[in-house]
Structure formats: structure tokens, C-alpha cells
TrEMBL record:
The modification 4-aspartylphosphate is found at residue 63. GO terms for biological process: phosphorelay signal transduction system. The keyword Cell cycle does not apply. NCBIfam families: sensory_box (TIGR00229). This is Response regulatory domain-containing protein. It comes from Arcobacter caeni. Residues 213-267 form the PAC domain. SUPFAM superfamilies: CheY-like, PYP-like sensor domain (PAS domain).
Amino acid sequence: MSIDKNLLKKFTLLYVEDDDVIRVELSQLLSNFFSMVHVAKNGKDGLRTYLENQDEIDLILTDLNMPELNGIEMIKKIRSFDNKIPIIFATAHSDSEFLAEAIKLRVQEYIVKPIDVRYLLSLCNDIVNNLYQEFLLKQQREELEKYKEIINSNNIVIKTDTHLNITYVNELFCEISGFNSDELIGKELKYLKYKDMASDIYTTLYANILNNKPWQGKLKNIKKDGTAFTTDAFVIPTLDETGDMIGAISIQRDITKELKKKRELVLALMKEKSDIFIRSKEGNLEQNQVINDLKHKLEKAQIEETQSLKIIDKYIYSNEKFRLENKNLKTELGLYKKNSDENLAFKFSKENSDLRLENKKTKDKLAQLQIDSEKTISQQRVNYETKIGELSDKINELTEKIETIQTDETLLQKLEYWKEKAKQETIKIENLEKQIIAHGDKNFMNKIFG
């Protein structure tokens, strides 16, 4: 059999042996396998060591024939303190009298010297494995007791016999229902059914339990005062060792308050929906009025924009007319210079001077017209930028107001459209200004703008 070193390392051994050589050699070897090995040289020393470390020692390995106190006498005294600790006897004798006494002392194993270490470790492994299993079972029982306490303190527990007659109810059920346990013991489980609860629920429950199947669902139970409480219930059959049903156990959780809160929440949501519908209806009227006002202002802005574009077109036309006149004058002056001779030079000098003067006046007039046009355009631009800014602010304000009333995707798209429209009109004005600059004479523009 394989030896589980990890398991052996969880336990402590008391080794009692009067032979110094055997005691030293075997104790050193056993120390490699056990968590701790306490060593004693005779029965008296072994008893003292056990009493000093009895809370730690899990297993005893002892010789039989020892001075002062032999193995049998030592174990008798130990058994007066502990009836369960496992014991292994090791001796050179196989006397039947010793064996009989060992059986009375509930000694687990008996090995003959010289000791086969591997066999000894195998015995120890079997014994500590049983000890470990007992430890796990004890731990599980303790956990089950804790779970039982938790279930009893937080849940309703009802037990029945094979006919589903109540045999036990816990304190929590009595506290909630108002019944005491004596009033319910012997009653059929469906005695707890509230009057308006469907009978087929208990029919299904009974059918499942009698066929060794669990049942889960909601039960409406009656209280002693005639009122009801609702539980989330889980009912399972209890079985004996052969698998036959010997009764049932029902674990229930009171959900009456939860259901009440859910109903209150549903009513509150319905009321809130109604209030929102009323507010949205009122908000739609105000929203329509705001949208109409916005449309009116935008239409007005479009009319003013159209008028401004006409004025700008007029200035562009005048500017182009003066440019052509100036060009024609320059052409005529060039022809005059080309065809004139010395005799006519004096004659045309005065006319040429008059033309230059008229040309200068025309240029000045054109420059002034250009300056006035620029001022007008600039002023128009400032005015429209101001109006557009005001409209943008108003749109933003109206947008925020509309959003508080109703988050309607169509309305938002309309507002975005008018915002984009205002931006496009601003760009148009800037492009017109650029066109005016582009059509002016280069020298003339240099004089104006440097």
C-alpha cells in the first residue's frame, strides 16, 4: 500500500521504547514522516510525556516489556483519560495473554520485533487515514449544524410524515403565523393553505413528494388571525437508508414584504407615467409656440439677408462700371499719345491735362465708392454676425428648453438644420466680400489695402 507522506505530516506520534539503539534509529526515521515524534524510554516516561502533550498526540507506538511501567500498565492509565486514541504494540513476544489484554484495551495493531518499517508505516498510514476521515466527518457535522441554525433562524421549516401530516414547525413559522406548534402537529400540510389559493398547487406538490420528487414554488399560507402571508417554498422528500420516503421537509422564505414593495413600485411607476404623459401634452403646446416663433425669426432673417445681397450686387455692378470706364479712358489716352505730333502736342496738352484731372476725379470717386462699399459691407457683415450670434444664442436657449420638454429627434434635426443654414449664410457674405476684392483693379486695391 502506498504511504501518503502529506497525510502523515498532519499528525503527531508518541514512541515509547526502552532499547536505546532501536529507539534512536526508529524515532529518527519516523520524524521524516510525522509532524512531530515524542520519544520516551519507558512506560513511566511515556505516561508523563502523554499527559504533558495529550492535546497534540494523535497516535501511540509502544513496546510491551519495559522497566518501571510496562506497555500494558501504561496504556491502562492512558485509557482512563482517553478511550479513543489509536495504539500500536511492538514486542518480541507473541504471548496470547498479552494479546488478550491488548484487545481489552482496544489496541488497533500488534507487530512483532524486529519491526518491518514499511509495514509499520503502512499501518500508521491506515490509522491516520481513519483519523482524518473522522475529522472531516466531524467538521461536516459541525458545518451542517451551523447551516441548520442559519436555516432555522432565517427560514420557515416544516417537517411531515409519509402522509404529509405536520410533525415539526420551527419558531420562525410560529412567530410569523401566530400558531403554536401544538396547534399544528398532526394537521395535514394543506391545512395551512389560504382560502383564495388554487387547490391544484397543493395537488402538484403532493404528487411530486409522493413520487420522491422535489417541489418548488410560491405558497400562500394562512395565519391564526385569518390573514395571509406568502412564501417562496422548496419541499423535498426525506428518505431512509433503503431510499423509501419517510416524510418531507419544507423550507420556506417569507416574501410578503417583497411582494408588497413590488406592487407599490408598479403603482408608483404607473402614476409617474401618467404624470409624464400629462406634462408632455402641456409641453407640446409650449414647444409648438416656441418653434413657430423661431420659424418667424428665421424667415425675417432670410428676408433681411436677401435685401442685403441685392445691395451688395448693386455695389458690385457700380464698381465694375467704373472699372470699365477707367479702362476706356486709359485706352483713349494711349491712342492720343501715339497719334500726336509736335504741332498738336501743345493743342492736346490742355485737353490731356483736363483728361488727367477728370481721370483723377474718376479714380477718387471710384476709391471713395469702394471705401463706402467696403464700409457698408463691413457694417452689414457686423450686423449679420450680430444677428446670427443672437439667433444662435436664441437657438441654443430654445434647444435647451425643448430638450427639457421632449427629446424629439425630429425637432433636434430641424434645429441643427437652421443652425447650419445660418452658418452657410455667413459664409456666403464672406464669399461676396472676397468677390468684390477680386474684381477691383489691382493698383487700385493696393492703394486701398496696401
